[in-house]
């Protein structure tokens, strides 16, 4: 089944950052008119938060959600197809739960780019921009932290358990807060920077805070405009707020979740990470990445995918059900994808290699039209359908669109260079149709 990707033809005037009053005024716009435009875009947002499930390493499209049962054996592989809830779409036999609920997602296929190495692929995936040595773009969560700041006692951008995504030219003040661990069933979950270390009381913490403030004033005199000092200042303020906040302690305490919810998530890192992500969204965290590594299956592709598909099959439906029960799914955009697909030809090690020419993405919630198919690949599964190729830039623009952030908004680098968020991206309007 193939449906054409409809890209938005509407031309959007590139809105500058609200601080750039002078530049906007020269174009005949006033500060208030730009502010009103930004407010209007936020009113039209379909999502308040994002959970991005990063399938790091790149899952094989042919062994998951873009199977080609009629292809030759050397392409088709070991796994058998099963019918999904979307008519005409078959998925891997090791995804039976997802198959039954696939019509709750929008499935994009034929996503294509040209970055065949993991660092470059992850950079493109995390920013919506082709990586270049001349400029380090900020990842989505960093932009969200700046454009849509959250609560003072919780970070706007959380990485579970960690990520290589970064703040780029926006600076470390907008870097992700890394939990460095995931909850484990039956054990208390403590996050460094949220829980007080043994032996440290709030009284001692406050005295340390006062001492650090004195030291900070001394350093600030030496370089008042240092981005490092700005980042340290923000981290220090937020760390103190988090440690002294009962609400922050509760936000990371998955043991407070009802048994009916905790039992949905199996005892593996992906599922427990997503259980935590759902709770953090409930407490107001804007952007959460849950990194699921291991998909780089150059060797024994089918052994590796068989091991990883079970947790993924359980985690995706459990996440949607939990967000639905909490009344959060309508305003939370759930995204799942890796940095690229894998080669149609199986290599001599029973593996598949990097293949950025074809990839897929699942989206749900946050205004996304459930059961929608966007894009397609050819019969061989080695290229996008000519009429439906989707760029990673388009995925990025669509994420920003859902959040009410103009994909063409401009921010300034430290040297004063104006840079659009996703200059080559076009919103995939069919996702929200």
Report on the structure:
This protein is 33% helix and 13% strand. It has a single domain (21-178, 269-432), classed as Alkaline Phosphatase, subunit A (3-Layer(aba) Sandwich). The longest helix has 25 residues, at 301-325. It has 13 helices and 15 strands. Helix 7 packs antiparallel against helix 8 and helix 11 runs parallel beside helix 12. Strands 1, 4, 5, 6, 7, 8, 11, 12 and 13 form a 9-stranded mixed sheet that branches. A two-stranded antiparallel ribbon has the order 2-3. By secondary structure, the chain is an alpha/beta fold. It has helices at 21-26, 31-43, 73-76, 96-101, 118-127, 140-147, 202-220, 227-243, 246-251, 259-262, 269-282, 301-325, 392-403; strands at 49-54, 81-83, 90-92, 106-112, 157-160, 177-178, 287-291, 332-337, 341-342, 354-355, 359-364, 373-374, 390-391, 410-412, 418-420.
Q: Quick gist of this model?
A:
The chain is of the alpha/beta class and 433 residues long. The chain has helices at 21-26, 31-43, 73-76, 96-101, 118-127, 140-147, 202-220, 227-243, 246-251, 259-262, 269-282, 301-325, 392-403; strands at 49-54, 81-83, 90-92, 106-112, 157-160, 177-178, 287-291, 332-337, 341-342, 354-355, 359-364, 373-374, 390-391, 410-412, 418-420. The longest helix is centred in the C-terminal third of the chain and has 25 residues, at 301-325.
Strand content range: 5-15%
Rg, alpha carbons:
22 Å
Ends distance: 18 Å
**SSE succession:** HHEHEEHEHHEEHHHHHEHEEEEEEHEE
Largest pleated sheet: 9 strands, mixed
Proportion of helical residues: 25-40%
